[in-house]
Design brief:
202 residues, alpha/beta, four-stranded parallel β-sheet, 6 helices, 7 strands, 39% helix
Length: 202
């Protein structure tokens, strides 16, 4: 685990998560626990409207949490109801948190390699629809990270289960003096909650 990421993890305090929020996270815990108990691969597909911000942060931190807690058969994905691009501030925020970020391609929808550990395979980050061939076709849980996608996409083909774990969009602060602060705040909220989820798996 990259040192800066490990240092941040040590500062997580799950008591900061309200009981109401823990209730929101419980269906995701239940899905992972059931799969883990049966020794079945765990596929998590984080879905937001544009697959540009919250879904990427959720995918990256969930995969990092699975590695930290030594769950070897967890595969995290992300997608949108439409494809746009991973917003550059997301890559910058993750890099500031200690991830190694390599921009593999340029263009309208760049591809990033995101590493939480020097010896582990990178997470591949780019914007795509949730049903893109890069993502699983079946036997996954669809985790709706924004209310717009949850309301606007009532059916996710192939999803075994669907849970809503929505987050406020840091996009509201784009172009302001608070942009970096608010992206970091949202990233760390997602991180702490994903680590809480995996800490509950027995």
């Amino acid at each position: 685990m990259n040192t800066k990421i490990a240092n941040q993890i040590e500062n997580f305090d799950f008591s900061n998560i309200s009981e109401a929020r823990k209730d929101v996270l419980q269906p995701l815990i239940d899905f992972i626990q059931e799969k883990h108990s049966k020794k079945i691969k765990i596929r998590l597909n984080f879905i937001c409207t544009h697959n540009s911000r919250r879904s990427h942060l959720s995918q990256v931190w969930a995969q990092t949490a699975a590695f930290y807690y030594n769950f070897k058969h967890v595969y995290c994905y992300s997608g949108g109801t439409e494809a746009t691009a991973m917003f550059p501030m997301v890559a910058e925020t993750l890099e500031n948190s200690g991830f190694d970020i390599l921009k593999i391609t340029d263009g309208d929808n760049p591809v990033y390699a995101i590493k939480f550990d020097h010896n582990e395979p990178p997470i591949v980050g780019f914007s795509k629809r949730f049903d893109n061939a890069f993502n699983p076709e079946t036997r996954f849980v669809a985790i709706m990270t924004c209310s717009q996608a949850d309301q606007g996409c009532p059916f996710i083909a192939g999803a075994q289960e669907r849970v809503a774990v929505t987050y406020e969009d840091p996009k509201a602060f784009d172009g302001t003096d608070q942009q970096a602060e608010k992206y970091n705040e949202r990233s760390l909220q997602i991180a702490e909650e994903m680590f809480y989820v995996f800490s509950k798996i027995k």
